[in-house]
Design goal:
By secondary structure, this protein is α/β, with parallel strands linked by helices. Helices cover 40% and strands 15% of the residues. An eight-stranded mixed β-sheet has the order 1-2-4-3-5-6-7-8, sandwiched between helices. β7, α9 and β8 form a beta-alpha-beta unit. α3 crosses α4 and α5 crosses α6. 44% of the residues are buried.
Length: 324
């Protein structure tokens, strides 16, 4: 074996270790902010021993907004502002994300997150709500509807992950802690990787304003974020099986026509599996369709939430008043 070939083999063998070391360095270089210094105590509720951060805006029928993997409620400023015109909007930072606690021993599976969301609803005096879930938040919304049907009116699944298919097929053979943690750290803190990921989520980079970039970036700078998101990622492998055919709530599937992260095949799979679902596709939009096309998305959501459907029991206005 030639010297050059041996060197090439050694480099290939060392590459995973070098990537892991680089990710470790990125994590420690960037994650220096303390969570307690960033969040308003008035926007935090303690649920099962965890402090969950949320935004409660507007008055009217209650609507929960659940973000996706690696996201936070800060991803949806336009959506929240539009919905709050005639709804009580409760946007939640899921456990491990945003300005919520980064727990070491909590159940961070989709069904575990659904239990925490339900407990938060009770804490805020919300008996029943319509639920909007984006990406992973869509899968959590489905678990919430299946486990607590009395608490969920209608579902809006936006570019939703499909339960049972939360881990990309090409990553399943290597879905182990060091690999997942390296991927998370690179996506959060390696500038080119983060920029590629953000740009792949939008049709036009114009939506990525400096304000939105800063809001999306801030939670990743909090100490323990990579570790927390790694736990969430690993917990996806422990998702409970979900029978979508038993979810009887009206469902709107809202998709960007050019979504690269969760494409229309996933939308059609959900459309076939859910007995009371319909699909609406917004052109010239990708994964961040809510912020890319806020007016079109808002019109579709409000039309769906206000329309009468057989057997429908919408979220009551009495439960939708803000809690002091």
């Amino acid at each position: 074996m030639g010297r050059l070939l041996r060197a090439q083999i050694g480099l290939v063998a060392a590459l995973p270790v070098l990537l892991w070391a680089y990710a470790w360095w990125l994590e420690r270089r960037n994650e220096r902010l303390e969570l307690s210094a960033l969040r308003d105590p008035e926007q935090v509720a303690t649920v099962d021993g965890l402090a969950l951060h949320y935004l409660d805006a507007g008055e009217g029928p209650p609507v929960l907004l659940l973000h996706g993997m690696g996201g936070s409620l800060a991803n949806f400023p336009r959506t929240i502002a539009l919905l709050a015109q005639d709804h009580r909007v409760v946007a939640v930072d899921l456990a491990g994300f945003g300005l919520s606690d980064r727990p070491r021993d909590a159940d961070l599976t989709p069904q575990g997150q659904a239990r925490l969301v339900r407990a938060l609803m009770e804490r805020l005096g919300i008996e029943r709500a319509d639920v909007i879930g984006h990406s992973l938040g869509g899968a959590i919304a489905l678990h919430l509807a299946a486990r607590y049907p009395e608490a969920v009116g209608r579902l809006v699944l936006v570019s939703s992950a499909v339960p049972g298919r939360l881990i990309p097929w090409f990553l399943r053979p290597v879905w182990y802690p060091p690999v997942v943690r390296t991927i998370v750290a690179l996506c959060l803190h390696c500038g080119p990787a983060r920029e590629w990921m953000w740009r792949a989520g939008v049709w036009s980079a114009d939506v990525l304003t400096p304000e939105l970039r800063q809001a999306m970036r801030l939670p990743s700078l909090i100490r323990g974020t990579t570790e927390a998101i790694t736990r969430v990622g690993l917990a996806l492998a422990r998702e409970e099986r979900l029978d979508l055919a038993r979810i009887g709530q009206p469902v709107l599937l809202l998709w960007g026509a050019e979504d690269r992260w969760v494409d229309l095949r996933s939308a059609r799979r959900l459309l076939r599996a859910l007995p009371n679902a319909r699909l609406e596709v917004i052109p010239r939009a990708r994964h961040m369709v809510l912020e890319e096309r806020p007016d079109e998305a808002h019109a579709a959501i409000v039309s769906f939430l206000s329309s009468a459907q057989p057997g429908d029991t919408p979220a009551g206005s009495a439960a939708g008043q803000a809690v002091s």
